[in-house]
Amino acid sequence: MTARIVLAYTGDGDVCEAVRQLAEIDDGAEVVTLTLDLGQGRDLEEIRDRALSAGAVRAHVLDVRDEFVRDFVLPVLQAGVAQTGPAPLAEALGQTLLAQKLVEIAAIETARSIAHGERGEHRQRLEASLAALDDDVQLALAAGK
User: Fold this and answer.
1) Chain centroid offset of residue 135 CA
2) Distance (Å) of CA 21 to CA 17, 28, 44, 55, 127
3) Which residue has the higher pLDDT, 11 or 51?
4) Using CA atoms, how far apart are residues 144 and 21, in angstroms rounded to an integer?
5) What's the gap between Cα 103 and its chain centre?
6) Residues 86-143: pLDDT tens digits?
7) What span, in angstroms and rounded, lies between the C-alpha atoms of 142 and 118?
8) Are 80 and 93 in contact (CB under 8 A)?
9) Cβ(37)–Cβ(49) below 8 Å
């Protein structure tokens, strides 16, 4: 059985190239992409098509707007949490939901690895969330690196 890698996918150029690179680096692994609609207003059908054109075997695009507000934004507002640091609070919350969905899709796709293109503080936050959700998660080389 061919190995699968789930890639957090934005549709940007670096991440498109990462689909090809991950398959080459990992002996022909199949790359499955995951894009979340948090309400950012992007053309998600175009992003799905771009992922498949780049070589992804499957491209998941999930509308998680209601879940994001209900399970992440609303509890933070109800708790009265104030913004701290330079990153927008919604961005940090979105990464937590992204980690959750990456783990879920990896299980559905029987993928052995997860990859992403986050850097710096965003990378640390996403990888910490992934590890907290599944301590057996294997990270492939981060996209765009």
Assistant:
1) 17
2) 6, 10, 22, 10, 20
3) 51
4) 9
5) 9
6) 556 777 788 889 999 999 999 999 998 999 988 888 888 889 999 999 888 888 865 5
7) 7
8) no
9) no
**Tokens describing residue 93:** 């919350």
Burial of 25 (0-12, 13-18, 19+ CB in 10 A): middle
- Tokens coding 21: 């690179």
The first and second tokens of residue 38, run together, are 């948090």
Angle between helices 120-133 and 89-108 (to 10 degrees): 50
- What is the model's pTM? 0.82
The answer to whether 51 and 11 have CB atoms below 8 angstroms apart is: yes
Task: Name which of 73, 72, 46, 71 is nearest 61 in CA terms.
Answer: 46
pLDDT in tens, 56-98: 999 999 999 999 999 988 888 787 776 665 556 777 788 889 9
115 three-state secondary structure: strand
CA 129 to chain centroid, in Å, comes to 11
The first and second tokens of residue 118, run together, are 């986050």
d(CA 98, CA 18): 18
